[in-house]
Specification:
The chain is of the alpha/beta class. It has 23 helices and 21 strands. The strands form four sheets. It has an eight-stranded mixed β-sheet with strand order 14-21-20-15-19-16-18-17, with helices on both faces. Helix 5 crosses helix 8. The longest helix is centred in the middle third of the chain and has 59 residues.
């Protein structure tokens, strides 16, 4: 007999692996079917799922804002570069919407074509579709939805075209048209035409998905990865996942090409602006230089100028040193003035300053200013005019422009001071030449002016050649380290992983389903489950009775169900441990649990021991015992004895002919007042007489959850057996029985489970006896 530990406290639920295996092992076929189905589903998934390949490329970004090489070095010497660009900024440029849309328009990947050959037999086309859809590029720039074109081209050259948005929203439908044909939709007019890949006299079913550039860009962004390789590297990694290797390679290669073309365009625009400025300055200085030369020529003709002689060289040499200093300072002054004019000219507000001032402070300000201009050009390429970052950058440029102007002004003042000092030295030397002709002094002034103009003109000619070399340079900004290439093995689906997941799902799915079924199941089926629920000892379980007769325990029978009743009988004997313990009250929680059937066969099992046994039908509201025993009359019964003093015990005792020493007292007529009848004084007399005549008294009482009759009889009982039924009694009804036991309303209580399935039997009786149940 199974007993719960811990007094009247129920079992704490624990995980018993052996019990779980024993419970679920009979479902081995379900696990096998689940594994086969899941593996089949995995194979089906691998069959219909197109492999996705990872396409990779790598670009090395030139840290100089322009291209590398000699041209870049010349630009750097002119401070035209505006500082070094950062790799992070170039990653932002590569991820820009404008660059992606340019690539999408070039490759036309906003139109996808799938040819249907049969059920689950589809072929995706890239650059080889037999039918194409075309529209102006401006339409795709504004199209914000995706549309599905279903094109059925018949052998006779006629086509049926249906355009849908979503599953059920028809946008257009044309039938029996000859391609090329136009289809008018609410979003624009599209042209449908055949290509060179379309074979004549062949049926085609094409599903074309047409998307705008923005939806297409958003879809590609989810599949592409653009990032710097590391913080210390100038390399950018590009990765893209696609089912078509050629399309993936084209996407990355075209994106890199568009990036380099954009960098070249920015460099050319910068060089053109610089060249225009240099040409303007050359024109002005050329006029000044020509005027100086003509003035010298006229002066010589007018004064018949000749060489003054070697005797003046020593003194003149001193003045020449001062003159060279004046020429150098005048040149620097003119350059500073050109920078000042450039800065103050509103037309050059967002242009590079193409010269460096001869001042450390001014040069630093100019380089910082050019760096901000370069950053603004990068940001303007991918940002709108109302961008907050653009506004902040414009404010920084304006402040830096003011700093440059102040620095240049300071440089001009410093040159003026130096120039005054040089002029003073020249005047001092000139005073010593007063003895020389005035014409000679005036001639030197003219030569000095010519020298200044000539130096400036030569300087600008050199810068023009350098700028032309920069404009001719075509070295890409992003040098390709690795061209786009696809991995040999697909990144998904992984066959081994799919097979493992399918196998694992096949093994776990039935276990989880059975566990959830058991968890949500409000009833129970086995003795083990009952032990977990009940606070009282479990005296056994009874198999389902597959025979027509209710009395199955007979002398000489070795059926399994008979052995189980004997097992229950033995356990009840342990409960009747007192000398005068004879009365066993059999009850249940509700009707239909087999209480009367169990009472009858427990009584018969005790009778087989040679004991005098009385089966008393005290379920007087719904008596069942007489109906289960052939030859037993329904009256007189217990109700007659209790209600009529003239009826004696001998009047209601009937002998069961099939079992020796087993008498039965049927319930009798159903009374109008059963509760009051069971409180009659004759109940005490009935049990007293029964105790004198019989060794064992089995009382079949009413269900405790429906009426209170059993509680009226509980005081006369020495032990109580609560009957439950597998797959019928609910768990909360066992909780009710537990509560009654804990409140001591049922004396010396135990419990058993009736109507169990032999296939679920893990206890006594399985495999014993003659298996005819």
């Amino acid at each position: 007999m199974s007993k719960n530990t811990g007094g009247n406290k129920p079992h704490t639920p624990t995980v018993d692996l052996q019990a779980l295996v024993a419970r679920y092992k009979r479902y081995w076929w379900l696990v096998l079917v689940s594994v086969i189905l899941c593996l089949g589903a995995g194979l089906f998934y691998l069959h219909i799922k197109k492999p996705v390949y990872l396409i990779q490329a790598m670009v090395l970004v030139d840290q100089d804002s322009n291209s590398s090489g000699a041209g870049a070095q010349l630009v750097k010497s002119l401070s035209l570069g505006g500082g070094n660009s950062r790799v992070e900024d170039e990653v932002v440029v590569m991820n820009s919407h404008e660059l992606f849309c340019q690539m999408i328009n070039i490759l036309r990947i906003n139109r996808k074509y799938v040819e249907r050959h049969g059920f689950l037999d589809n072929e995706e086309h890239y650059n080889d579709s037999p039918i194409e859809i075309d529209a102006p590029d401006a339409l795709f720039d504004t199209l914000s939805v995706s549309m599905a074109f279903r094109i059925e081209l018949h052998k006779d050259g006629k086509a049926d075209i249906t355009v849908k948005k979503g599953m059920f929203n028809n946008l257009a439908e044309v039938s029996n048209v000859t391609l090329p044909a136009t289809v008018k939709t609410p979003y624009g007019i599209f042209a449908v035409r055949t290509t060179d890949y379309c074979l004549p006299h062949k049926d085609y079913t094409i599903k074309a998905t047409v998307s705008g550039n923005i939806p297409c860009y958003e879809g590609i962004k989810k599949l592409i990865t653009i990032k710097s390789v590391s913080k210390k590297s100038n390399a950018i990694y590009l990765g893209y996942a696609d089912t078509n290797k050629n399309r993936g390679r084209d996407i990355l290669n075209t994106l890199i090409t568009c990036y380099n073309e954009r960098g070249q365009q920015e460099k050319d625009e910068q060089a053109v602006n610089t060249g225009k400025f240099i040409e303007d300055r050359l024109g002005l200085i050329y006029k000044d230089l020509t005027g100086s030369e003509e003035e010298i020529e006229a002066y010589k003709r007018a004064h018949n100028m000749i060489d003054v002689g070697l005797q003046t060289k020593s003194l003149i040499g001193k003045q020449e040193i001062a003159d060279r200093a004046i020429v150098n300072l005048e040149t620097k002054y003119r350059i500073a003035e050109m920078i000042k004019d450039f800065v103050n000219n509103p037309a050059n507000r967002n242009s590079y300053i193409p010269f460096s001032a001869d001042s450390t402070a001014a040069t630093g300000s100019i380089k910082a200013y050019n760096a901000l201009i370069m950053e603004r050009m990068h940001l303007a390429a991918s940002a709108t005019d109302d961008n907050q970052a653009m506004h902040r950058l414009d404010e920084q440029i304006e402040v830096m422009r003011s700093n440059v102007a102040k620095g240049v002004e300071n440089t001009l003042n410093a040159i003026k001071i130096q120039l005054a000092r040089a002029n003073a030295e020249s005047a001092s030397s000139g005073g010593e030449l007063n003895t020389y002709p005035t014409d000679e002094r005036e001639m030197r002034a003219l030569y000095r002016q010519q020298g200044i103009q000539n130096t400036l003109y030569t300087f600008l000619l050199q810068k023009r050649e350098e700028n032309a070399l920069l404009l001719a340079a075509t070295t890409p900004k992003g040098r390709i380290v690795e061209h786009a290439h696809a991995q040999t093995e697909p990144m998904s689906p992984r066959k081994m992983i799919v097979a493992f997941v399918a196998l694992l799902a096949g093994l776990l799915l039935p276990v989880v389903m059975l566990y959830l079924k058991n968890l949500l199941y409000t009833k129970f089926n086995t003795e083990d489950e009952l032990e977990q629920l009940a606070v009282m000892p479990v005296v056994g379980h009874i198999h389902h009775n597959r025979h027509d007769e209710a009395l199955v325990v007979k002398d000489g029978s070795t059926r399994v169900i008979v052995e189980l009743f004997r097992y229950v009988r033995n356990n009840i004997q342990f409960m009747l441990n007192g000398e005068n313990d004879k009365v066993v009250l059999v009850t249940s929680s509700m009707s239909g649990e087999g209480k009367s059937f169990v009472s009858l066969n427990i009584a018969s099992a005790f009778a087989l021991l040679g004991k005098r046994v009385a089966l008393v039908g005290m379920d007087i509201r719904k008596p069942r015992i007489a109906a289960m025993l052939p030859g037993i009359a329904e009256m007189p019964g217990v109700t007659g004895y209790l209600s009529q003093s003239s009826v004696t015990l001998d009047d209601i005792i009937q002998h069961v002919g099939q079992v020796d020493s087993l008498d039965v007292l049927v319930g009798g007529a159903i009374p109008p007042n059963p509760s009051e009848l069971l409180l009659n004084n004759r109940v005490e007399r009935l049990f007293a007489e029964l105790r004198e005549r019989y060794d064992i008294i089995i009382v079949d009482s009413a269900p405790v959850a429906m009426v209170s009759d059993t509680f009226s009889l509980a005081k006369w009982a020495d032990a109580t057996v609560c009957v439950t039924r597998a797959g019928y009694t609910k768990r909360n009804q066992v909780k009710l029985l537990n509560k009654l036991v804990q409140e001591n309303r049922l004396k010396n209580a135990s419990i058993l489970i009736n109507d169990t399935k032999p296939s679920m039997d893990n206890g006594y009786g399985y495999g014993y006896g003659e298996n005819k149940d």
